[in-house]
Amino acid sequence: MTALYTWDVFATLDGYGSFGEGADWGGYWSKQGPELLAHRAALFDTEQRMVFGATTFRETAAIMSSGIDPNALDEWNVRTMRSPATVISSTLTDTLGWPDATIVSGDAVEIVTRLKEESDVPLRSQASLSLNWALMAAGLVDRLQVTVFPVISGRTGTSPILGGAGDFDLELLESRTLDGRTLELVYRPTVH
User: Fold this and answer.
1) Total domain count for the chain?
2) pLDDT digit string (tens) for the chain, length 192 residues
3) Residue 122 belongs to domain with CATH number
4) How far apart are CA 101 and CA 52, in angstroms?
5) How far is CA 103 from CA 82, 87, 90, 110, 179, in A?
6) What count of other Cβ atoms lies within 10 Å of the Cβ of residue 133?
7) CA dist 48 → 3, 14, 27, 68 (Å)
8) How many CB atoms neighbour CB 117 within 10 A?
9) What is the CA radius of gyration of the chain?
10) What is the predicted pLDDT for the residue at 125?
11) pLDDT at 63
12) What is the side-by-side order of every strand in the sheet holding 49-53?
């Protein structure tokens, strides 16, 4: 059986995954609420393996291992850090304090194909844009989970989440509104 691979990404309504330096949006574009945070934590109730590209892993590990009191982090972030992780990188040699991380160098498509065949648990990747564009093009992303925050960041937005992706048809599998304002959309992508 092949493990399910979910690409999990946050975005503004206009498709940006982050904002530029000096922008004063705050985390979650300052739109998080209790329902969103509880839902995110519940996504990590079951065992799964995280898959990261080097840039996202560096950013995530820096936040998680920065000495921040774990009680100050959102529960889903704590649960993410407890998950085993595979980092696909030709530049990293250090797991940067991640308790159960493995760094693998090589072709991402081959690595994730092997992970999907061998894993007993679902695979989840957060952000890691260029990695997941390549995996979608190869047909390895089973679910594209986009959480759309109610903001437009046309002036300060950076990292268009699908800016480097190819053309895909999307089958909507699930949708939900969280805290009356944030949308979570789960699609099955297929190359167009």
Assistant:
1) 1
2) 699 999 999 999 999 999 988 888 988 999 999 999 999 999 999 999 999 999 999 988 887 776 666 666 788 888 898 899 999 999 999 999 888 999 999 999 999 999 999 999 999 999 999 999 999 999 999 999 999 999 999 999 999 999 999 999 999 999 999 999 999 999 999 999
3) 3.40.430.10
4) 10
5) 16, 5, 9, 14, 37
6) 18
7) 10, 30, 24, 24
8) 10
9) 16
10) 98
11) 78
12) 101-104, 85-88, 49-53, 123-126, 5-12, 143-149, 182-191, 168-178
Percentages helix, strand, coil for the chain (3-state, rounded to 5) are: 30, 30, 40
Q: Which domain does 129 fall in, by range?
A: 5-191
Contact 126, 8 (CB under 8 A): yes
Confidence (pLDDT) at 71: 64
How far the first Cα of the chain sits from its last, in Å, is: 25
Beta strands in the chain (DSSP E): 5-12, 16-19, 49-53, 85-88, 101-104, 123-126, 143-149, 157-160, 168-178, 182-191
- Dihedral over Cα of 39, 44, 48, 51: its sign: positive
For residue 132, count other CB atoms closer than 10 A to its CB. 29
pTM for the model: 0.94
Encoded tokens for 28: 């979650």
Q: Report the alpha-carbon distance of residue 84 to residue 79 in Å, rounded.
A: 10
For residue 185, the cross-strand partners are 146, 175
Query: Under 8 Å CB-to-CB from 21, ≥6 apart: which residues?
Result: none
